[in-house]
Amino acid sequence: MSLALSCLAGIGMDALLGEPRRGHPLVAFGRWADTLERHFNGLDGRGWRSHGVTAWCLAVLPLTALAWLLSRLPGIGGLVEILLLYFALGLRSLGDHLLPVARALRQGDLPEARRRVGFIVSRDTRELDAQGVARAATESALENGSDAVFAALFWFALAGAPGVVLYRLSNTLDAMWGYRNQRFERFGWAAARIDDLLNFVPARLVALTYAVLGQTRRARHCWRTQAPLWDSPNAGPVMAAGAGALGVTLGGAAIYHGELHQRPVLGEGDSPGPRDIERALDMVWAGVGVWILVLLVGAGLHA
């Protein structure tokens, strides 16, 4: 029961406060990761896989150990766990970034919608039409809901403070180093593979959650037939099931770092619009409610 209450407290802090405006620990961690990358990978990107493994260990393991020690402190260990979960979650932030995109699209302000969605996606948004903006935002809601919300809750439930810190830092390094380009292909290999491993089970639980909360039969069909075609082993199930649950079509061509990528089509139905961005966010929030309910029921049965 204390685990479920700790999750509720962390989610409540995130919903009430959102991300810290100043002094977010992940910002400081990002600077430390940049320093490690410059040292071990060099300015020319000639680091090897072993360099990436070393840098990952130096970035993640000491802070994970510190989280374990702090969570064991008498009297305040429980508060430390809640605070670390709060720092790891991005539930309110997801809405803070994506709801203005939906609002701008409704108002017909395409330049503002492009600018807003560019804050949260890595693709080039300058030439997107309204459907392309809505597609990018809906994909972001589904995928970031998995990475920044559900996976953090999963690892907190499984391993407490050290689990959620290990996961969140690993996920951050994947976002920074996990690119398949000349600079990071070798050095970032470890960060990408570790993040894939840590997300494997949570992503499939998220896909199941999306399927249950939407058009279940269609979501299961899209998950089974379309997810294997996606280049990410974890984003594929999440986005295919989410698109099927919403009854929209995602994927397709997108420009990343100046290169056109022909991505498989995910889901079935019409192209998403502003309302579908909101529906995707609503599904993430509903899924969080389902997970908390499962934790509460599990705690009650165990008691």
UniProtKB/TrEMBL annotation:
The keyword Membrane applies. It is a multi-pass membrane protein. The keyword Transmembrane helix applies. The chain crosses the membrane at residues 53-71, 78-95, 148-167, 283-301. Pathway: Cofactor biosynthesis; adenosylcobalamin biosynthesis. GO terms for molecular function: ABC-type vitamin B12 transporter activity; threonine-phosphate decarboxylase activity. One of its GO terms (biological process) is cobalamin biosynthetic process. It comes from the Bacteria. It holds the Pfam family CobD_Cbib. Keywords: Cell membrane, Cobalamin biosynthesis, Membrane, Transmembrane, Transmembrane helix. It is found in: Cell membrane. GO terms for cellular component: plasma membrane. InterPro entries: Cobalamin_biosynth_CobD/CbiB (IPR004485). PANTHER family: COBALAMIN BIOSYNTHESIS PROTEIN CBIB (PTHR34308:SF1). Belongs to the CobD/CbiB family. Converts cobyric acid to cobinamide by the addition of aminopropanol on the F carboxylic group. This is Cobalamin biosynthesis protein CobD.
